[in-house]
Amino acid sequence: MYKDKILYRLRSFRKGFLSGEELARRTGISRTMVWKHISSLRGQGFTIEAVPSQGYRLAAEPDLLRKQDIASGLKIKVIGRDIQLFTTLVSTNTAAMELASKGAVEGTVIISEMQTGGKGRLGRKWISPKGNLYLSIILRPAIPTHKAPLITMSGAVAVASAIRSVCGVAVGIKWPNDILVSGKKVCGLLTEMSAEQDRIRHIVLGIGIDVNMRPDELPPDIRALTTTLSEAKGSTVNRTVLLRQLLRDMDHWYRQFLVQDADVLAEWKKLNVTFGRRITVSGTGELLEGIAQGIDEDGRLIVKQNNGVLRLIAAGDVTILKR
Ligand code: BTN
């Protein structure tokens, strides 16, 4: 696309002005068309200065995801074979489940700038204003259904790795798959699947990361337990850079999971902040208290209750109690 070519030129020459004539020559279009694309970029929120007889200069970029920026030069094998970007969706998971049932290729990624009906675990809502990352990945692994939780764990390990390398902050995982920074939640994962008997048709791995939103966009009760990456880092986080790293790390950990799922479990265990801690588990009808002992090979949490009885937990909310 010519608009992308113009943006590419402007980005690689930020220190000075590029004349309309030069932009036209380098992109192979007329000066009038250059001017039209510049107007269109401005319409998308790019600040482009224009000085008569000097030309154009890119002064600032909007915090906006662009498909070209996300996809270009990504050296990945499975994840991101098809990337679909939306301004708004009800839920990327719902959209991805629909596309998957119509045969979308494995590795398809659905991204939205915001969601009007974002879904959380245990039937809750996921508040999804602009400024964060909301994505869902379609997967078609040939695995038995009881192994599906390990896909979510691969996702958690990938998110943790991407956040650590892009933002330079320490990251932990609280069972089942909450990503914590400074002890507060920054990301949640929600896996949905379509299966028959013991065969998975497709799995959708949904990831929501609180990146740059204002904390007051969340209700006070949720705000107390959560943070954003920009708050943790102390500056705005480039969402495109984070998303690209996440797609790379997801591609790595998903393929590793298919070859040797024990590697995912081992990495997840290294990052977990739950084991050995006194916890309560809620959200499943009963409130259970005990010490988190570990997880079994299918990712279920092993809790030793106060009366010494061991319990295996498949779903729930964990609260880590103060020592
Ligand atoms: C949780 O409750 O911790 C899981 C939250 C998962 C939210 C993400 S945002 C992208 C995807 N689409 C949804 O509707 N939910 C997931």
Question: What characteristics describe this protein?
Answer:
323 residues, Arc Repressor Mutant, subunit A, 10 helices, alpha+beta, binds biotin, SH3 type barrels
What topology emerges from the helices and strands here?
Elements: H1 2-11, H2 20-27, H3 31-43, E1 47-51, E2 55-60, H4 67-71, E3 83-89, H5 92-101, E4 109-115, E5 133-139, H6 149-167, E6 172-174, E7 178-181, E8 184-196, E9 199-209, H7 220-223, H8 229-233, H9 239-259, H10 261-271, E10 278-282, E11 288-295, E12 301-305, E13 310-313, E14 317-320
Parallel strand pairs: 3-4
Antiparallel strand pairs: 1-2, 4-5, 5-9, 6-7, 7-8, 8-9, 10-11, 10-14, 11-12, 12-13
Helix pairs in contact: 1-3, 2-3, 6-9, 6-10, 9-10
Bound molecules: biotin.
Biotin binds next to α5, β5, β8 and β9.
- Net shape: elongated
Average pLDDT: 94
The H-level CATH homologous superfamily of the largest domain, spelled out, is Bira Bifunctional Protein, Domain 2
CATH C-level label of the largest domain: Alpha Beta
Structure, explained:
It contains ten helices and 14 strands. It has 323 residues and is of the alpha+beta class. The protein folds into three domains: 59 residues, Arc Repressor Mutant, subunit A; 205 residues, 2-Layer Sandwich (BirA Bifunctional Protein, domain 2); 43 residues, SH3 type barrels. It has a seven-stranded mixed beta sheet, sandwiched between helices. It has a five-stranded antiparallel beta sheet with strand order 13-12-11-10-14, with no helix packed on it. A two-stranded antiparallel ribbon has the order 1-2. Helix 6 crosses helix 10 and helix 9 crosses helix 10. The termini are far apart. The mean pLDDT is 94.
